[in-house]
């Protein structure tokens, strides 16, 4: 990488900037969880099956796709032992470790504010601002009236 490439900075507001695609990749819940799980193990490696256990809810395919993308972006190193079946190990690169801080701050913000965000999802009549008892719904009219 040349000095000018290293110093080049993206512009999120430019429709042609690859920063948008990068944010789409690193902004997923699976990438955030993988970075956290791998950072907790750093500098040690984590085998695929162990990483999957540390990420409840992730499917084998989704974890594979996520890790492949992270390897391609230079965030993760992949090492394969030539055993039967092959043992595949992953660990964060320096670049991947540098992503842990910002993602950690975002995860912390989300966990701290989740209840408040969920309150905003309530229908208007269920919000705390509508204090006081609600009127009971009227019973249905008898049939044939």
Shape: globular
Which architecture of the domain at 19-113 would the CATH scheme give at its second level? Answer: Orthogonal Bundle
By CATH, the superfamily of the domain at 19-113 comes out as Winged helix-like DNA-binding domain superfamily/Winged helix DNA-binding domain
Kindly state the percentage of residues in helix.
40-55%
| Main sheet summary | 3 strands, antiparallel
Q: Could you report the average pLDDT, rounded to the nearest whole number?
A: 86
The helix tally amounts to 6
| Beta strands, count | 3
How many angstroms does the end-to-end distance come to? 82 Å
Report the C-alpha radius of gyration, rounded: 23 Å
- Unreliable sequence segments: none
- In terms of DSSP E residues, the strand content is 5-15%
| Helix/strand class | mainly alpha
CATH topology of the domain at 19-113: Arc Repressor Mutant, subunit A
CATH class of the domain at 19-113: Mainly Alpha
InterPro entries: HTH_HxlR, WH-like_DNA-bd_sf, WH_DNA-bd_sf
GO molecular function: DNA binding
Keywords: DNA-binding, Transcription, Transcription regulation
Protein name: Transcriptional regulator
Could you explain the architecture of this structure?
The mean pLDDT is 86. The longest helix has 27 residues, at 94-120. Strand 2 and strand 3 form a beta hairpin. The chain starts with a helix and ends in a 25-residue tail after the last helix. It has 145 residues and is mainly alpha-helical. Helix 3 (29-41) crosses helix 6. It has six helices and three strands. It has helices at 3-7, 19-26, 29-41, 48-54, 60-72, 94-120, and strands at 46-47, 76-81, 87-92. The protein has a three-stranded antiparallel beta sheet with strand order 1-3-2. The protein has a domain at 19-113: Arc Repressor Mutant, subunit A (Orthogonal Bundle), CATH 1.10.10.10. Residues 122-145 are annotated as: Disordered. Pfam families: HxlR. GO terms for molecular function: DNA binding.
């Amino acid at each position: 990488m040349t000095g000018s490439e290293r110093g080049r900075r993206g512009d999120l507001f430019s429709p042609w900037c690859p920063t948008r695609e990068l944010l789409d990749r690193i902004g997923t819940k699976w990438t955030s969880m993988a970075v956290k799980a791998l950072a907790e193990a750093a500098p040690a490696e984590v085998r695929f099956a162990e990483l999957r256990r540390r990420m409840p809810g992730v499917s084998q395919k989704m974890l594979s796709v996520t890790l492949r993308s992270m390897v391609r972006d230079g965030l993760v190193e992949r090492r394969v032992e030539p055993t039967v079946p092959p043992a595949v190990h992953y660990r964060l690169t320096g670049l991947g470790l540098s992503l842990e801080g910002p993602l950690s701050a975002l995860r912390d913000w989300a966990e701290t504010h989740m209840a408040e965000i969920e309150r905003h999802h309530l229908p208007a009549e269920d919000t705390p601002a509508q204090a006081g008892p609600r009127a009971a719904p009227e019973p249905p009219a008898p049939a044939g009236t």
